[in-house]
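Project outcomes to date are best conveyed with an example. Our students and postdoctoral researchers have been running inverse folding experiments weekly, and each run begins with a structure described purely in tokens. The record below, which covers 247 residues, was selected by the lab manager from last quarter's runs and is presented without edits.
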């Protein structure tokens, strides 16, 4: 394991992308703080990484609540050290016909995918600016750049998060804070997508063609790659998709 490099705080870190990023940054020598609504769901991952001698912790936090977001940054900084990396990975991928999209559903999609990202990004910037360094990641999707049928709520939220990330990048870049928006224009090779494909098309996971979904480890490597970039060649937006994806 590499020497300690500070803290990577991962908000909205579930069992797919979030877990892969946790593994990659733990292997890279970071103390990893996994934050999700129910921290108990990450105990298996925490045990796995601690067994490999990595410094990993899990916290329960609702990214839509300002006081909880502020509290988790204060706690992590006090108990585990300076936050050098922050990932916002939460989202609400809902697909509903326009006339079935209620006011409540629309607001909840925005609140989690966009507003939560703003809160987390702002608090990450607050602690990073005091030290003049850091990297802030936002996970985007196809819906970040293209609205499709049934995605009026989700795409508007992801468009909004992309705008937040762009504005942050332009403001914080000159202050040595690297803001990255990773646009995943693909299905992710995860249990949730496998179940969705089976329900929609009757396709078993074993029948999915190789390399037709983007692996979570590939997404984690993309985040690691951008984090390692030198200041003279920073990437703000990077899009990932399998070679067979139509775009």
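After processing, the design step wrote out the following sequence:
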């Amino acid at each position: 394991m590499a020497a300690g490099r500070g803290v990577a705080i991962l908000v909205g870190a579930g069992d797919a992308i979030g877990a892969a990023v946790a593994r990659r940054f733990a292997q890279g020598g970071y103390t990893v703080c996994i934050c999700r609504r129910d921290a108990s769901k990450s105990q298996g991952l925490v045990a796995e990484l601690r067994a490999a001698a990595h410094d990993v912790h899990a916290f329960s936090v609702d990214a839509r609540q300002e006081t909880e977001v502020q509290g988790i940054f204060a706690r992590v900084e006090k108990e585990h050290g300076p936050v050098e990396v922050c990932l916002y990975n939460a989202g609400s991928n809902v697909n509903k016909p326009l006339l079935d999209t209620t006011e409540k559903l629309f607001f909840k999609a925005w609140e989690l995918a966009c507003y939560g990202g703003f809160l987390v990004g702002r608090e990450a910037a607050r602690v990073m600016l005091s030290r003049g360094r850091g990297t802030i990641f936002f996970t985007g999707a196809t819906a970040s750049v293209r609205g499709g049928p049934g995605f009026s709520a989700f795409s508007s939220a992801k468009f909004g998060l992309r705008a937040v990330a762009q504005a942050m990048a332009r403001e914080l870049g000159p202050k040595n804070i690297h803001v990255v928006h990773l646009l995943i224009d693909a299905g992710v090779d995860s249990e949730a997508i496998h179940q969705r494909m089976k329900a929609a098309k009757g396709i078993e996971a074993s029948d999915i063609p190789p390399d037709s979904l983007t692996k979570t480890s590939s997404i984690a490597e993309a985040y690691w790659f951008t984090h390692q970039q030198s200041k003279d060649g920073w990437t703000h937006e990077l899009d990932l998709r399998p070679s067979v994806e139509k775009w």
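The mean pLDDT is 93. DSSP finds seven helices and nine strands in the chain. The training component of this project remains on track.
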